[in-house]
Amino acid sequence: MSQSVSQPHPSRRLLIPALGNVYAPLHELAETVLRVVAGLALVVHGAGKISEPFGSVEMVEGLGFYPGVFWSPLLAATEFFGGMLIAVGLLTRPAAFAAMIVLLVTVWFHWITLGQGYMGAEKSILWAAIFFFFAIRGANGHSVDARLGREV
User: Fold this and answer.
1) Cβ pair 86, 80 in contact under 8 A
2) pLDDT tens digits, 66-96
3) CA torsion, points 1, 93, 40, 25, in degrees to nearest 10?
4) DSSP string, the chain
């Protein structure tokens, strides 16, 4: 089901009320741009992994995910195909949830395993938050989910 454009909360008044006429029609477009860019960025990130799906076996086992021959192709598919699904807005919630989990693992990896703290995990935190948004919100009217009239 497509979601309607949300209006500003009645208790929130714009400093320049006329800007409401600019913001309202661009609300859904801004959300769509964020979803498409996030999905395509995930596709690009996963492209190298999908061409060599067992190339990350040692890396995932180094993070404690055994057997690596299972987790490495799953990581590649989540990034590459999940990114495609997010970009077009098909099965958006489950794809975004899977991407969020992958990004939370990278937060752990950079912050704890490599000892880089916040500075090392910052990008992963931002990406995990973006995918959390779409896991909860789903896609909007500019998506395959909306065209099908169904979403998870």
Assistant:
1) no
2) 999 999 999 999 999 999 999 999 999 999 9
3) 40
4) ---PPPPPPTT---SSGGGHHHHHHHHHHHHHHHHHHHHHHHHHHHHHHHHSTTTTHHHHHHTT-S-HHHHHHHHHHHHHHHHHHHHHTSSHHHHHHHHHHHHHHHHHIIIIIS--HHHHHHHHHHHHHHHHHHHHH---SSSHHHHHT---
Type of residue found at 69: V
Q: Are 140 and 31 in contact (CB under 8 A)?
A: yes
Beta carbons within 10 angstroms of residue 36's beta carbon: 16
Give the CA diameter of the chain: 58
4 pLDDT higher than 50: no
User: What distance in Å separates the CA atoms of residue 46 and residue 53, rounded to the nearest whole number?
Assistant: 10
Closest CA to 133 of 23, 37, 47, 45: 37
Q: Tell me how many degrees the CA angle 100-77-104 measures, rounded to the nearest 5.
A: 20
Instruction: Tell me the pLDDT tens digit for each residue of 15-35.
Output: 998 888 888 889 899 999 999
